[in-house]
């Protein structure tokens, strides 16, 4: 597991949309998506000299982090497992807690789910 995403509830692989990434026309198939519903969120306030401000989690949402695994850059960065490609709040699926809405149609496969 990637440090910082240790409380992930689900891990999915493959985006069900075409994506060119890092020189690959099949970049969509390489992506990993980590999802969870954290107890709270933070927002940076006050500009460059600011600070994080705790805030409530948006109702009915889960946090999704899209990871690009390090496949092509192992030689210069052997310690890097992957890079965060994108993160955002997504509507929660009604049938699978802590998963994005329509996860079956969004991703190629569900790789893993953390047990309660």
Tell me what you see in this structure.
This protein has a 5-stranded antiparallel sheet with strand order 6-5-2-1-7. It has a two-stranded antiparallel ribbon with strand order 3-4. The chain has helices at 27-30, 103-106; strands spanning 10-15, 32-36, 41-45, 51-55, 61-69, 82-91, 107-113. It has 2 helices and 7 strands; from the N terminus they run βαβββββαβ. It has 116 residues and is mainly beta.
Total helices: the number is 2
What is the oligomer described by this structure? single chain
Distance between the termini: 17 Å
Mean of residue pLDDT values: 87
What order do the strands of the largest sheet run in, or round the barrel if closed? Answer: 6-5-2-1-7
Can you tell me the residue ranges where pLDDT is under 50 for at least 5 consecutive residues?
none
Beta-strand share of residues:
35-45%
Helix content: under 10%
Keywords:
single chain; 116 residues; mainly beta; 5-stranded antiparallel sheet; two-stranded antiparallel ribbon; 2 helices; 7 strands
Give a quick rundown of the structure.
This protein has 116 residues and is mainly beta.
List the helices and strands and how they pair.
Layout: E1 10-15, H1 27-30, E2 32-36, E3 41-45, E4 51-55, E5 61-69, E6 82-91, H2 103-106, E7 107-113
């Amino acid at each position: 597991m990637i440090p910082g995403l240790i409380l992930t509830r689900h891990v999915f692989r493959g985006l069900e949309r075409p994506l060119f990434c890092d020189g690959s026309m099949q970049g969509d198939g390489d992506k990993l998506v980590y999802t969870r519903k954290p107890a709270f969120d933070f927002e940076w306030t006050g500009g460059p000299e600011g600070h994080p401000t705790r805030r409530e989690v948006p109702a009915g949402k889960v946090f999704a982090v899209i990871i690009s695994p390090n496949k092509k850059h192992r030689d210069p960065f052997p310690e890097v497992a992957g890079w965060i490609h994108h993160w955002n709040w997504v509507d929660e699926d009604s049938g699978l807690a802590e998963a994005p809405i329509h996860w079956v149609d969004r991703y190629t496969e569900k790789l893993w789910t953390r047990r309660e």
